[in-house]
Amino acid sequence: MLLDLIASETERAKQGLAARIIAKVNSLQDPDIIAALYKASQAGVEVKLNIRGVCCLKPGDARWSKNIEVVSVIDRYLEHARVFCFHSGGDSEVFIASADWMGRNLERRIELMVPIEEPALKRRLIRTLDAYFQDNVQASRLLPDGTSQRIKPAAGQRRYRVQEHFFQQAKKAAKAR
């Protein structure tokens, strides 16, 4: 199913339509998914990946992955979220899942991938995914050579720490009860 969703975004991009994939996983090692993401990037799909751990994909290479950005946020809380969003022509398809994008998870284990149907929840999850790409305190960007570079606030830009942001939101919601 993941490969089909990636292929659908690739086809949209080839037709000149907006195409975007955003995913948050712990690891990306599956060669078929990596190949599909490279193909998507070459077709013009914007691919944004938040990968906390191992990533075997090389982002930002002009030959095959110029449209792929990989960030990693390592902060106070150990996260295990797996959330995927496929633009799907503007009617985003959003999923939560139990599996990382690793061969052992996708081929040898029983894992779940559940679509999110509720529009308000879909919007909230998309905003959450996007927020991780705004972190300029605890985030690092994976470079084409496999090294990581800490993301820092630009001159005059306010510091944004995504986990702290969500912690403060939860704290505020708890006080409101």
Task: Walk me through what this model shows.
The protein is of the alpha+beta class and 177 residues long. It contains 5 helices and 8 strands; from the N terminus they run αβαββββαβαββα. The protein has a single domain, classed as 2-Layer Sandwich (Endonuclease, Chain A), CATH 3.30.870. An 8-stranded mixed sheet has the order 6-5-4-1-2-3-7-8, with helices on both faces. A hairpin with a 5-residue loop joins β7 and β8. It is globular, with a radius of gyration of 16 Å.
Outline the fold blueprint:
Blueprint: H1 2-14, E1 20-25, H2 31-43, E2 46-51, E3 68-73, E4 83-86, E5 93-97, H3 103-107, E6 113-116, H4 119-131, E7 139-142, E8 148-150, H5 162-176
Parallel strand pairs: 1-2, 2-3
Antiparallel strand pairs: 1-4, 3-7, 4-5, 5-6, 7-8
Helix pairs in contact: 1-2
CATH topology: Endonuclease, Chain A
Gross CATH architecture: 2-Layer Sandwich
Low-pLDDT segments: none
Q: What's the number of domains? A: 1
Supply the helix-strand structural class: alpha+beta
Strand order of the largest sheet: 6-5-4-1-2-3-7-8
Q: How do the helices and strands follow one another from N- to C-terminus? A: HEHEEEEHEHEEH
Q: Helicity, in percent?
A: 25-40%
Q: Biggest sheet: strands, sense, closure? A: 8 strands, mixed
